[in-house]
């Protein structure tokens, strides 16, 4: 019988907000010491996406970028700029995310749905997996 323990396996952190951690180099060193070989760094808005791409550029092969537009961070003023960044940089990322719907936050639901729909089209066109945030939205229709 094959041993299914993770002790001899390469571990990947599949969802980390590295843009919020300072100093990131020390955090990555601690992760490596714990056996983490790679980290998928997820973006949440324009600033976060730019920081995530920068961090991935400074730690190639270790930090894998995923840029997105988290429903908590959606603001009507930044939608076009952030979506333009996502569309232009998604090909350099391992995934789209973090994106989705959140029916508990006060962000306008039609705007959340519009942004989610638009970024999903980017993911489909570039054949990227999607890191989805979903809170109190699983029973809502996407019409």
Task: Describe the protein.
The protein is of the alpha/beta class and 143 residues long. Helices cover 36% and strands 22% of the residues. The chain has a single domain (11-135), classed as TIM Barrel, CATH 3.20.20.140. It is built from four helices and five strands. The longest helix is centred in the C-terminal third of the chain and has 18 residues, at 109-126.
Largest sheet: 5 strands, parallel
Overall form: globular
CATH superfamily, by name, is: Metal-dependent hydrolases
Count of helical regions:
4
Quaternary arrangement of the chains shown? single chain
Task: Give the helices and strands as they follow along the chain.
Answer: EHEHEHEHE
Mean pLDDT: 88
Secondary structure: number of strands: 5
Overall structural domain count: 1
Kindly state the percentage of residues in helix.
Answer: 25-40%
Spans of at least 5 consecutive residues with low confidence: 1-7
Q: Could you tell me the strand content as a percent range? A: 15-25%
Kindly report how far apart the N and C termini lie: 48 Å
Question: Which class in CATH terms?
Answer: Alpha Beta
The radius of gyration computed from the alpha-carbon positions, rounded to a whole number of angstroms, is: 16 Å
What do we call the CATH topology? TIM Barrel
Which CATH-level-2 architecture? Alpha-Beta Barrel
Q: Class by helix and strand content?
A: alpha/beta
Q: Kindly report the spatial arrangement of strands forming the biggest sheet.
A: 1-2-3-4-5
